[in-house]
Structures are given as structure tokens and as C-alpha cells.
Amino acid sequence: MNYTVVLPAAGSGKRMGAKHNKLFLELEGQPILAHTLQVFQQDPWCEAIVLAIKEEERNIIKELVETYKLTKVTHLVQGGSERQHSVFEALKAAYGCQVVLVHDAARPFILQSTIHALVEKAAAEGGAIAAVKAKDTMKLVRDGRVEETIDRETLWAVQTPQAFRYPLLFEAAEQAQQDGFLGTDEAMLAERAGIPVHVVESSYDNQKMTTPDDLLIGELILKRRKENN
Ligand code: CTP
Ligand code: MG
């Protein structure tokens, strides 16, 4: 089942503390962005890749797209000041697809099996998000005092990709922009629009490269994958 993927890549990577966009930092000799893009380039279900980028990085990203022969990249759109704005700009360019997947460019370890499960679930139900079960005991705390322990069986740590039937997400995103509502993921926009959002169990490997420690973990994940192949 075909889909278009929207990849927000217009961040600045402040928490990574690098001098430039963290997506150009390398894991095993390749930029994080190249790792992520190759997953979608190699997925037969993926028909188009729309990237939200910073205008000043257009040339370097064009070069990367050529170097890694990323022929599915159809649009490099200018991102915005917040991730949600970047995604919205990219969604406009993805117009016409049936299922759209939004995925952080900073999560290079997403598995094709998870992507396919998300696409199928979203096509059938409206929306589906990748998530993993919480590993720790979780408590609700206010002013430093525990109010209650939340049943861990009901708690999921949410990742991307987040997949939706395109018109549903586009409308929800447009509504959020109009209302000045800023969410931390696409599901929040869908939830407020009444779109059913289902969970697909993902892998703990699908981490976002956020701080320098994540790069160490990233190198280990790649090393383990090489050994297992
Ligand atoms: N992103 C984006 N546009 C923004 C902000 C973020 O396209 N205005 C993208 C990032 O490039 C990244 C993804 O959204 O691929 C997830 O964001 P995050 O991990 O927070 O990356 P940054 O915003 O770059 O990092 P930081 O928050 O540490 O500055
Ligand atoms: Mg950010």
C-alpha cells in the first residue's frame, strides 16, 4: 500500500550542541539525514519523500540527495520556526496522496515493518502512531509530591512515524494553524479534530537523536545490526 512521507528536517539541534543542524552529524560515516532518507528510498511502498528544510541548507541537502541517489525526494519545502509549521508546509506539498506518514528526520532507525503496520492501520482507521510501552513506573507528580501511580499498562511513549489518511491530517493541521494551537506531535492535532488515533507497537531502537549521548547509542544500534546481518 503506497504512502508519501513528510520529513521535518528544518530544526537547529540546540540540545545536540553542534555548530550546525544535527542531521548532518555522522553515524558510521553517513549523515543522520542520509540514514533516515535511505529507509524510505528503499521501501517499495514509499512513493514520494517531502522534506521540510531551512532555506540556507537547501544546497547542501540537494547535494546529499544527489550523492545518495535519493530519487524519491520530490520536494524541498521551506520549514518554519516550529516543527508543526515545518510539517504543515510539507503537508501542502504532499497534496493528493492517500496515506501520509510524518517522521522526524532525526529518527534514523525506523523499521520497514513498523512503517507498513502504520500505513495499513491508518488506511483502515484514520490514524496510527508508533509507540513503545513505558519501561519505568510512572507517577503523577505535582509540586514535587506524588499524587498517584499510573497503571503502566495504559502508558505508551510516543514516537514517529505518525500515519494518517491524508485529508484527515491536512484538515486537522489547517485547523490547528488557524486556531494558533501548537501541539508536540501530529496526533495531538488529530485528537482535537476527533480523528481516531491507534497505536502500533514500535521498537525501542527508533530513538530520536537529540543529545550527544544518543549518538553513542546510535553507533551501537548500527554495530549490532551489522553483526546480525
Ligand atoms: N524540525 C523542523 N522544524 C523546526 C524544528 C524541528 O523541521 N522548526 C525537525 C528537526 O529537524 C527534527 C524533528 O523536527 O528532524 C524533531 O525535532 P527535534 O528533535 O526537536 O530537532 P531540533 O529542533 O533540531 O533540536 P532541538 O529541539 O534540540 O533544537
Ligand atoms: Mg526541537
TrEMBL record:
It catalyses: 2-C-methyl-D-erythritol 4-phosphate + CTP + H(+) = 4-CDP-2-C-methyl-D-erythritol + diphosphate. One of its GO terms (molecular function) is 2-C-methyl-D-erythritol 4-phosphate cytidylyltransferase activity. InterPro entries: IspD, IspD/TarI, IspD/TarI_cytidylyltransf_bact, ISPD_synthase_CS, Nucleotide-diphossugar_trans. GO terms for biological process: isopentenyl diphosphate biosynthetic process, methylerythritol 4-phosphate pathway. Pathway: Isoprenoid biosynthesis; isopentenyl diphosphate biosynthesis via DXP pathway; isopentenyl diphosphate from 1-deoxy-D-xylulose 5-phosphate: step 2/6. Keywords: Isoprene biosynthesis, Nucleotidyltransferase, Transferase. Its EC number is 2.7.7.60. Gene3D superfamilies: Spore Coat Polysaccharide Biosynthesis Protein SpsA, Chain A (3.90.550.10). The record marks R15, K22 as: Transition state stabilizer. The record marks R152, K208 as: Positions MEP for the nucleophilic attack. Belongs to the IspD/TarI cytidylyltransferase family. IspD subfamily. Catalyzes the formation of 4-diphosphocytidyl-2-C-methyl-D-erythritol from CTP and 2-C-methyl-D-erythritol 4-phosphate (MEP). HAMAP family: IspD. This is 2-C-methyl-D-erythritol 4-phosphate cytidylyltransferase. The gene is ispD.
